[in-house]
Amino acid sequence: MEHLFTAFASVLFPVNLALLFTGSALGLLVGVLPGLSSPMALAILVPVAFGMEPVSAFMVLIGTYVGTKTGGAFSAILMRTPGTPAAAATAMEGHPMALRGEAGRALGLAISASFVGGTLSWLLAVPLVGVIGTYAVRISSADLAMIGILALTAVASLSGQDVLKGLMAALLGLVISTIGLDELSGTPRLTMGIYQLYGGVPFLAAIIGLFAIATVLVDISEVSVRKQPTAQKNSFSLLGTLREMWIMRKILLVGTAIGSALGIVPGVGSDTAGWLSYAYVKRLAVRGLLKTDRKIGEGVPEGLAAPEAANNAVTGGATIPMLTLGIPGDGSTAIMLGALMLFGLQPGPMFFRESPDLAYSILVALGLANLTTLVAALVFIRPFVAILKIDRAMLLGSVLVLALVGSYASSNASYEMLIALLFGFLGYFMHRFGYSIPALALGLILGPVIESNFRRALLITRGDYLVFLTSPVSLVCFLLILSLAAKFCFDIIQSRRRQSAGEGPTITTSNH
Amino acid sequence: MRIHNVVKFLTLTSAIAVFAAATTSAVSAEFPTKPIRIINAFKPGGATDTAIRGLTQSSDSFIDQPIIIEAVTGGGGVTGILKAAKSKPDGYTLLVADTVMTTLPLFQKNLPVSAEDFKPVGVFNLRGAWLLTRPSKGWNSLDEFVKAAQAAPGELTVGVPALSSPQHMTVIALEDHYEIDVNIVPYGGGAPTMAALLGDQIDAAMPGAPAGLDSINAGDAVFLVASTNIELKKFEGEIISLKDEGVNHDLGIWTAVWAPKDTPNEVMARLVEIFGAMATSLEWTDFARGYGVTPIWKPGAEAATYIEESGKSMADLAGLIK
Predict the structure, then answer these.
(1) Domain-terminating residue out of B226, B241, B267
(2) Residues of A in contact with B163 (CB under 8 A)
(3) Which residues on B lie below 8 Å from A202 (Cβ)?
(4) Which domain CATH number covers B189?
(5) Do B173 and B111 lie in a common domain?
(6) Residue of chain A whose Cα is closest to the Cα of B287
(7) Alpha-carbon gap: A11 to the closest alpha carbon of chain B (Å)
């Protein structure tokens, strides 16, 4: 406790606070630009930070890390181009809101939800520093596989308008995710001899294609019918946002809980957290439990707030195993771990005992970074909303350019632009025929998690499938998966029955 | 007045042009005259990226041009390596790559690029793989681990960061030397491998140093053997290498700077000079030891021989994989 107060004092030192703020602003910018990711920004910053005092250096790094999580929402809402894969779920409701002239409201909500999610997960994580770390390593490969399958089942069932189409999209995502070298045998799969595919389908390029380029294609094909978004209601009011946050407090809490929990689970992270909490809101909407008269997909504010709270809540869960065990929860924390080592510090069990000042300062900075990011983001709203005043035809061109540059920038390899375009066309046709793009994206994200952990678990037990039922985590997941599967069957049978009763198919046409 | 200004402007521009031309021709004798780009084919922030950024941080003490690290990822590293191989062999585009240059072709057939397309400028750092276990297992030396493995063939699980990695080859070397059979489980990275060891999911782990260093110092992991002779700043115990145990393989994880194979000899000589200066600078050696790797410098031909030997060891061991 005493260390925590000393740490607060050192972080609140004006220079450190200014560095934290600078980091947040920088992170926001990196988050806004598709293709620039948080690990990339951190990798570039580490040598710069190496010249500073350790505490100051970590102010910049932590600020950037938290800032990118929020920044992704800007481009997702304004252009339906997720700046980071984690913000893809935010685009689903955020962009329709912007189109009907509520960009300011949507951004305000996204930013405040991010703040709430990040801060609550931090408050949750700090007292549990010791416990979370030890628990995180206990999660076995079998548990990870089951968590992955559960997440995929939950989202696939809720993201499409038709359960079967949702599952088909998720399966297609899984198949695409098997492309590349098999991690457990080293054999190339479905690469067709193209060496560029050895490392798998480049994930960021695929996401940019599915969300940004597909949107451009859809918009072009409908450009005569779609109206220019109205700009006059785009203003943002702090008071209004606060009121809205209070109304949807329960949804924010659920998003935070999902994010914090997935942050601890290694390798699942913020992309999944966003989708899972979006699925939760969607489920509420389907049951008519939301206080809104809008349909999901038409800009429901709750569907934007939940994923934003969730993807920021991941930061709390992911950082603690890094500090207490020296085991990073995601790519960004892996780089910060490297930075700690550069300073001659070894994060891990001894870290809090040997260098409590820095360890607690990092912990405090993580909490405060949510605040500095909030302030920086609020300043950004007004200039960014102006994007919507640009003529739609011009904006579409710019989005396409930005998307292609983004897919190139993620790896500096030009074939990734081709991949983005291919996925753009795939996304366009999926949209036309009512297949869920999020379900496909989640299949892509979770495919490697599920497959490698599933096979690793069997490798360890020499093929004993009971391993997926014996640990408490696995068992709970298994039961939840079963109940979801039962629900699908029920839904499908019911819709068939209605169909034969002459009520016509329940498959609604696409929602634009 | 106006004409006067135009004349003044023209004189000034031509003066600048002449000056620029003069200085360029004067400096062109001295390589480099423009920024040097080093391609890293693996993810930013990884061990290779950290190492090269650490090495080149002192570059401005030795050359007037900046060194830019460019991450060209994808294709399991092939994309970046190929891009470097295809670039103009003028010394301005280099590659940084580790042991993967010798292990990649062992497992992937028909690759469009190989180590043959490059000449090493020099090997600048060395890491070891080390075999670790948990105290609760009760094995305090490699001997005790081997005995346990002999008692239960195929039963003990050993985590490695990736298949076909030097870490994997080190386990194969142990299996071969002691005639044991263990269950090798790839974990997709050093951190997950350590997590699995600490979380009681595997019996032993073979991560690359310095991963696991703190766990050893804190008493949560027990050191058994290292793949090569390395020095570590903060490690308190004695490092026993495979050679000490009578295994005839040196399986260090080295990192080297490479140039396309047609790079002219005089440029190569200059590159060796520049990178040698950085690799022996205090900035780099301090940085490396702090990070937990061993700073070394094997220039040009010496590096080529070293890499060839390391490659032979890896190839021999790869042949033993069942």
Answers:
(1) B226
(2) 183-186
(3) 74
(4) 3.40.190.10
(5) no
(6) A342
(7) 25
Domain containing residue B266: 36-126+254-318
According to DSSP H, which parts of A265-391 are helical? 269-286, 302-325, 331-342, 351-354, 356-385
pLDDT per residue, tens digit, chain A (512 aa), is: 677 778 888 888 888 889 999 999 988 888 887 767 777 778 777 767 777 888 888 899 999 988 988 888 888 888 887 777 778 888 888 888 888 888 888 999 999 999 999 999 988 888 877 666 667 677 888 988 898 888 888 776 655 557 778 888 889 999 999 998 887 777 788 888 787 888 888 877 888 888 888 878 887 887 655 555 555 455 677 788 888 888 888 999 999 998 888 877 766 666 788 888 888 888 888 777 777 777 777 888 888 999 999 988 888 877 776 777 666 666 677 778 777 777 767 666 667 777 778 888 888 888 899 999 999 998 888 787 777 677 777 777 887 887 888 788 777 888 889 999 999 999 999 988 888 887 888 888 788 888 989 999 999 998 899 999 988 889 999 998 998 888 778 877 877 787 777 544 444 433 33
d(CA B300, CA B280) in angstroms, rounded, equals: 15
Alpha carbons A374 and A370: distance in angstroms, whole number: 6
Chain A residue numbers with beta carbons less than 8 Å from the beta carbon of B185 are 456, 459-460
8 A C-beta contact, residue B52 and residue B295? no
Residues B136 and B113 in one domain: no
CA B210/CA B49 separation, integer angstroms: 15
Which residue of chain B has the CA closest to A143? B201
Separation of CA B187 from chain center: 20
B262 and B314 inside one domain = yes
B45, B83, B164: residue with CB nearest A42 = B45
Task: Please tell me the distance in Å from B156's CA to the nearest CA on chain A.
Answer: 9
Q: Domain map of chain A by residue range? A: 2-498
Helix, strand, coil share (%) of chain A residues, nearest 5:
75, 0, 20
The total number of structural domains in chain B stands at 2
Sign of CA dihedral B100, B105, B109, B113: positive
CA of B266, closest CA in chain A: separation in Å? 30
Q: Which among B226, B242, B271 is the end of a domain?
A: B226
Residue B117 forms part of a structural domain = yes
Residues in chain A with CB shorter than 8 Å from the CB of B196 are 137, 140-141
Q: Hey, are the CB atoms on B53 and A460 less than 8 Å from each other?
A: no
The answer to whether A346 contacts B214, with C-beta atoms less than 8 Å apart, is yes
**Closest to A342 (Cβ–Cβ): which among B80, B202, B291?**
B291
Residue B243 lies in a domain: no
Give, rounded to a whole angstrom, the gap between the first and last alpha carbons of chain A: 54
> How far B44 CA lies from chain A's nearest CA (Å)?
6
- Cβ of B291 within 8 Å of Cβ of A349? The answer is no
How far is the alpha carbon of A72 from chain B, nearest alpha carbon, in Å? 20
CATH number at residue B266: 3.40.190.150
A180: left (phi over 0), alpha (psi -120 to 50) or beta: left
Q: Do B73 and A196 touch (CB under 8 A)?
A: no
Angle among Cα B76, B77, B79 to the nearest 5 degrees reads 105
Tell me, yes or no, whether B168 lies in a domain.
yes
Residue B146 lies in a domain: yes
CA distance B123 to chain A (A): 20
Q: Given an 8 Å threshold on Cβ–Cβ distance, is A349 in contact with B215?
A: yes
Q: What is the 3-state secondary structure (H, E, C) of A115-163?
A: HHHHHHHHHHHHHHHHHHHHHHHHCCHHHHHHHHHHHHHHHHHHHCCCH
Residue A342: its chain B contacts at CB < 8 A? Answer: 50, 54, 287, 290-291
Say if the Cβ atoms of B74 and A415 lie within 8 Å.
Answer: yes
Please tell me which residue of chain A has the smallest CA distance to B194: A327
